[in-house]
Amino acid sequence: MSSSPDTVAREVRRRRTFAIISHPDAGKSTMTEALALHARMISEAGAVHGKAGRKATVSDWMEMEKARGISVSSTALQFNYTRTEAQPDTEPTVINLVDTPGHADFSEDTYRVLTAVDAAVMLIDAAKGLEPQTLKLFQVCRHRGIPVITVVNKWDRPGQTPLELIDEIAERIGLVPTPLYVPVGIAGDFRGLYDRRSGRYIKFSRTAGGAKIAPEELLDAHTAANVEGEAWTAAREESELLSEMGQDHDQELFLAGETSPMIFTSAMLNFGVRQLLDALVELAPAPAGRTAVDGTVRAVTDPFSAVVFKVQAGMDSSHRDRLAYMRIVSGEFERGMVVTHAQTGRPFATKYAQAVFGRDRSTVDTAYPGDVVGLVNATALAPGDTLYNEPPIEYPPIGSFAPEHFATLRARTAGKYKQFRKAMDQLESEGVVQVLRNGTRGDASPVLAAVGPMQFEVVTARMLAEFTVETDLEPLGYSLARRTDEASSAELDRQRGVEVFTRTDGALLALFSDKWRLQYIEKEHPDVTLEPLVAAAD
Ligand code: G4P
Known about the structure:
The protein is of the alpha+beta class. The chain has three domains: 5-283, P-loop containing nucleotide triphosphate hydrolases (Rossmann fold, 3-Layer(aba) Sandwich); 290-388, Rossmann fold, CATH 3.40.50; 405-524, 2-Layer Sandwich (Alpha-Beta Plaits). The protein contains 14 helices and 31 strands. The strands form six sheets. The protein has an eight-stranded antiparallel beta sheet. It has an eight-stranded antiparallel beta sheet with strand order 27-24-26-25-29-30-28-31. It has a seven-stranded mixed beta sheet with strand order 2-3-1-4-5-11-6, with helices on both faces. Helix 11 packs across helix 12 (454-467). The site of guanosine-5',3'-tetraphosphate has 18 residues, from helix 2.
């Protein structure tokens, strides 16, 4: 029995789906664990993994899953959270934290994941400020119009001043930070937060090893001034300066991606974590409808529809199947429902739907817009695909990025060729890399095209681990790709430093050694079609 649109609307209103974007080491894992602690999914941070430090790994989460009977995975973490100041009968907010790939190399994966969220938390290390990966990820958020909450983490360690960090963000990325709180105490002496909207002071106390939720004391301005003296005055002054510069929170500007509410935290000490959760509940947008290829908009209360944003072969040797993760866009999802795969028009049975994945997979029976559901053995599904219940709908494809790294790959031993082909097909359909072919090179050594070289490493490692194929990767001297057409390829093929390929989606791509080669050909052969592809940061 399907629920009424009213039920769906209610469920949507209480959902928040977001991702944390950060440069490696800014504290994403620590923050994820701190959020789980505040949502009371775990009782002690650091306790679940039983090793030095607080770094939670996927297997740690799996242990936690077993111990607490909750659903956690490296793909999406769902938990309920009730704001401290909420009315007693308020339904908890359902928070979906979608994981972005942790590796340092920017890849299309991250971009795809960011198509599945409604907001992002940009986590910055107080001492390091903006780092390359943060910048790139932020650009993706801007491109997709995703509102961003900025979190300055590690305030318990020496770093820059709040105003320096604010200026850096405003200048380098053009996003105006509007702090909700100003820290009391300089970086390295984190005492509490001045709540700019209520004028009150939240004073934190440390717990042993930062394992528990940090006790908070709520003080009025007068008491705060007595307790903190200079540090309190400095925070008040900074706040006033921000107000004079117009840097107060404005919900409309935040949703339009022009400003970013900012919070200072120490994920390690659990300071400011509750404030971050409260901000997500209060300010981040609930899931909204989506525009289809034909320009129509599917409202969240319309019949079921979802977009596949990630496809992955079972990482775990005991589950060698292919998992497709979908973000629900509209309607109620019920396990067992037979939906339609828009790209093939074929029915798709959802008997094996799972909330998340780990060694112990947990089944999901119902889900609503904003939720992430994994489908097992989804061999026909690819990133960007649409699933729906009548009436039909198809969402725009996620799109491939302009590759910047190229290499040929071949099986080390000829006897492994069949396996090699099979593995190539599998990895290609998951979207791990783009694969380019042309008649001259033949099929034994296809050209791999990637946004980041880390994608190549993933291919060779998985070839070996999952298909027992040893491979040789040889970088190619190309650095640029342009889309071309049949009529232009003959001319391009005659040029030095250029090679034309067909990508699996049928697109013809011309590869160039460098931008000078490209400019030369554009000048000498103005009739040749050479269109830019979507760049990673477009
Ligand atoms: P990541 O997932 O973004 O890569 O970062 P992760 O949480 O693993 O944190 C990276 C390092 O920063 C870890 O230290 C972690 O303990 C530390 N860290 C995270 N948040 C805070 C914070 O608020 N304050 C301070 N002072 N440190 C923080 P590590 O030395 O690499 O590991 P470990 O020995 O602590 O486990």
